[in-house]
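Issue: copy button drops trailing tokens. Both records pasted manually instead:
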Amino acid sequence: MRSEFLVYYQPIQDLKADRIVGFEALVRWNHPLRGMIAPLNFIPVAEETGLIVPLGDWVLRTACSDAAGWSQDVCVAVNLSPAQFKSRNLVPSVVSALEVSGLPACRLELEITESVLLQDSDATLATLHKLRALGVRISMDDFGTGYSSLSYLRSFRSTRSRSTVPLSANL
């Protein structure tokens, strides 16, 4: 990644307990000539070219490594692109990132978008179940829309969601 990409962490606050419970990993590009490039300007290009998968894998490994040194009650959330989620290497990449970093799986939360759930449902559910079997938490990032198609969530249950649509509850 030529040391141009950086991972920043946005705090996740539990408002009831008034404490930070985790951090969301956010990738940024510090171009050597143009300075900081907004994700809006490089993520779509990375998705179109297929570079989003190795970039996402690097973010995952970096976030797990960094989080392993944090307080034991703080988790890290990492966004997965639809292309990264479809990659056959996703589960092995997650396993490797956890093993190399020493981060317990329960401290990793993977954020997916609704578009992931709209893909091949059998393969999607199989991947989600494999990730959950590892102990990784799954949440849906609805990008602030506040709603999603609950019918796509009924066949997959989770323990926690940071979006306004709980992946748990009694679906």
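Record 2 (pasted manually too):
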Amino acid sequence: MAVRDGSRGWDEYAPFYDWENARTVARRDIAFWQRLAAAQQGPVLELGCGTGRIAVPLVKAGIPLVGIDRSAPMLARARQRLHRAGLAGRARLVRGDIRSLPFRVRHRFKLVMAPYGMLQSLTRESDLQATLTSIARVLGPGGLLGIDLVPDLPRWSEYSRRVSLKGRKGPGTAIRLIESVRQDTRRGLTHFDQEYVESRGRERRVHRFELTFRTLSVPQMARRLLRAGFSVEAVLGDYQGGPWDPRADVWIILARKRGSARRLPLGLRRAASSAAGGA
């Protein structure tokens, strides 16, 4: 059986993405990406920029940013957020495929960001390899790649039709997320069957879609980065630059395009010698 394309489901997810993430990851990673982007002193590319959860705060901070996403509904919401924040025209948002980044000018970006498990939606090995090769092509000399992995995917217990979240979505609208989780341990995939139920008076609307993510360990990702022309500079275990641990809630990998002698700022090198050595 063919592996399901992890890009599917995100168009349907767009109306609910911000509502869910406000109750889960919220803003805990934004300051980290702001510090990292500001330290590079050049244009930044965000992969899977979605609704602008990270892009908008970075643009507010004066970061020159290009965001790319495959989902038109996600990008529409990101443009709305930029407009509401008075930032329209301050960022370039592109609909495109990260496996073949649509930027003709080589050596353009100082930093490429893949936040919050973004690369784990690449469920096929060939897609990940193509993406890393494409990233290396658009990074300038000494360019940096930042990857945020979600480590707990294989630890999710399988369950069926559990109410994971509920609350209000706009005036007069109640919402529930009914979720099922299926594990494909052989392929390292976790499937989330999502059902959002919106209720407004007697009116009830149901939205169903599936999201699939792939588990990759730090050593597995480090080997793929090496083959794509990167050197791992640091592996972090939190958004404050703390040391990596396999039991950490997040795994952040910072990798430099090979051929540069540049180094990370001191605050982001705290874990480099021990954690990257273990990768």
